[in-house]
Amino acid sequence: MTIDSKEMDPVTLVETPQAAEPGLFQSFLWLINPRLAVGLTILTVMGLGSFILPLFAPADPSVQATYMRNLPASGAHWLGTNALGQDIFWFLVFAIRNSLMLGVLVAVGVTIVATTVGLSAGYIGGRFERLVMLIVDTFITIPLLPILIILGSLIRGNTSFFTVGFIIIIFGWAWDARTVRSMALSIREREFINMARFSGANTAQVIIREVFPYVMAYTLVGFINTILFAINLEATLAVIGLSKVEVPTLGSIIFWALNYNALFTGHFLWLVAPIIASVTLFLGLFLTSTGFNAAFAERRGVQ
Amino acid sequence: MGALVYIAKRFGLYLAVLFIGLSITFLLPRLMPINPVDGYIGQIQSRANGALSAEAIAELRDNLENLYGLKGNLFTQYVDYMKRIVFSFDFGPSFTYFPQPVSQMLMAALPWTLSLLLTATVIAWTLGNLVGLVAGYFHKKKAASILEFVGILLYPIPYYILAVTVLLLLAYVFPVFPLSATFPVGQMSWEKVGMIIYNSLLPGITLVLAGFGWNILSMKALAVATTEEPYVIYARLKGASNWTRMTRYVFRNALLPQVTALALSLGMVFNGALLTEMIFSYPGIGLVMRAAATGGDYNVLYGAITISIIAVATAGLVIDLLYPLLDPRIRHK
Amino acid sequence: MISIKDLQVSYRLGTRTIHAVDGVTLNIPDGCIVGIAGESGCGKSTLMKAIYGDITSPMHLSRGSITYGLKSAQGRQVTAQNIREEWFKSISYVPQSSMNSLNPVIRIREQFIDFPGTDSNKKRVLERARAYMGKLGLPPEAMDSYPHQLSGGMRQRMMIGLATFFQPELIIADEPTTALDVVVQKDILMLLMELQEEMKNTILVVSHDMGVHYQVTHKMLIMYAGRVVEYGDTDSVFSNPQHPYTKMLIDSLPTIGDDSMRGLMASAAGASGDRAYRVEPILHEVKPGHFVAQAAAAPVAQSVGA
Question: What is the end-to-end Cα distance of chain C in Å, rounded?
Fold first, then answer.
């Protein structure tokens, strides 16, 4: 019996593939997995669509009585018109755009606040951290909706659409701050920080080269989750009529539809279209978020 | 010993959170651009069409400021406020239903909210975790991916969409339930109780569906990870049955982080319950808040926020106190 | 006790098939402690799994057989097919130092009775177990505690107690002293030896620590790359190693007779260094009871196949 020592030797059992010089595309290839692909596709389509299409809108969809009321779906009105004389399709397109814009802006705001608070709490530690975390925990415990309801009733359409977003930032940063802090704590333990320091790099270099890639994963995922959260919250307010409901958002469509008893009058499309649009958008955001998560986790596992 | 320290810490945290929460609620109206007293007086004036004299208005303003606790400097207001809330649980009278005290209104609505919330959360959590456990333990089987998919589908859908969809499907497309429910109040009879349960099913289903998805997903991930643990592998090599391993080894251990996560998500669950009440006209705190919001009944609103904060914080405390019962590492040293 | 004939255990990695155990033929006698040594990846763990009957996909037995000289409590012959039912009855297992092998949320005594075992009367089992644990030097409260309340050494005693208390005829101990501190290691090893003398069963001890083997085993088995390199009485193998690989393993120890345990983590991992060995599957009896695989005339260079 001949023995091929190549097969025998445990050291050469697993062949290392030839490492070619990775191009720019290849260097991001590890990111792609099915979830992420589907999620990003949905988001790109909806995002681009909702920002580009409005340039072609025949009229401002929020103006009432532009068209005949309650027209069924047709070539002229793809989703028909509603009881207020607005074109449902265009209202929906603008709604998606506004919701997305609000979501992104709030996510930016929340991420800035949460990262600042969380990082400082995590790094500084001690009594400062305990105090900060107490505040964070309190904000987490305070149920957001009642606060928003009060504020909504006080403000009641007297201010701009973006005030709502601002309020969401003020009360919504807590959860992310908590996550950032745990991340900061685990970074503190990590060897590579010390190694970089010993090798003479200054703090900024350390942060950029070592900390940032690690943090990026969590930040990106958290960012997308916050978009989801913000869109949701605004829509929730709108559905109960406490946001500026004249502005088209995913929530306000539903508000008007419910208000005009779309169910009773059998005006399906008015209610169902935003539901499908919302679910798709959220699915897109969710898949993107978990897709990134999975990609980063796999990458970390390999390393 | 370790357990007592743990309890003391948690309780201390609870009190601190309550304190800060109440303080924020105190500051809220005072930081608003709109003075609720002015708002209310404005309403009265427009209704009275200028028939009120200047003295009447001044007197009204005076009364209102008293009722709202807006007299005196900030500090005395704060102390009075705290005293009122903590000792006599008094939020003042409602405006829309003057002079009915707010606390009475809220206390009548609270049991509805709590029962809906508790039932739905318990069901969603239990079902979701069980499904997630099985999906995670047998994660190599095809059926597991299907279950996970269900979770993925349900999880990102927000409460209001679920509520509206449930309404659409179960009250319109398949008219199993009424489109708008009526909830009998007053003297209870068996018939009324039956009606209540029947009408509560829609909001209940919505809440269960909303929580179900997340529980499945997180439990599945936890179960998969726990099954790889050395002690589960060792149990297998002892010859322990699949059932024993799944329940006493994987489940009992994966349960712990799930309980913690539940405690953290209570705020959101509460939000969802309020919203669902509003959409289904369920006579809980949510509905009271909505009516108060449109009617400008600020005392009710502030009272409702306070109760919400207390409810969520207390539920969190209860869960925190139950945790040592589940984890012997906290219980004994 | 165990008769292994030309055993091959393989799995697929991409398009290639890897033989974790590649042509092992061996007879393991009754009533002794057999040590299995070799570096990581040599196949010793897989061989143990095969003997224990725990080969699951993606691994499978691609060739050969294992015959057991064991009978179940009912008198039925134990074979590779029904060996699973004998787990913790006539054959048992001691895991690697058990920081984690006990369920942390359940009391230890429960973990003595949550598997089939040999006795269905749980109360009786517990009573006997308590008495037995006392013999092993564990305080009576130990069984009623939770795992985190015991020290590492006590926990490992528990594992040994669990594995031996049903009086199995074959015990497999997989790195039983790794991650234990040095003083405790000695205790555990002594315990194993005492138990074996009493019960007169067979214990297979897997370790990459040659010092462990030297102290405890009667016979030694050296493995490399899925094949047996050398096998014989421990004294004979240590004083007269025949195969260059064995020599290298033993050379990594401090001088024999040096009582200090320090440095006995002369891990064979990496002992082969830059050399690769060609190992024939056929063993030649060099002395009575001392078998060696034919060594290549000279070490083969590493760069094969790169």
Answer: 42
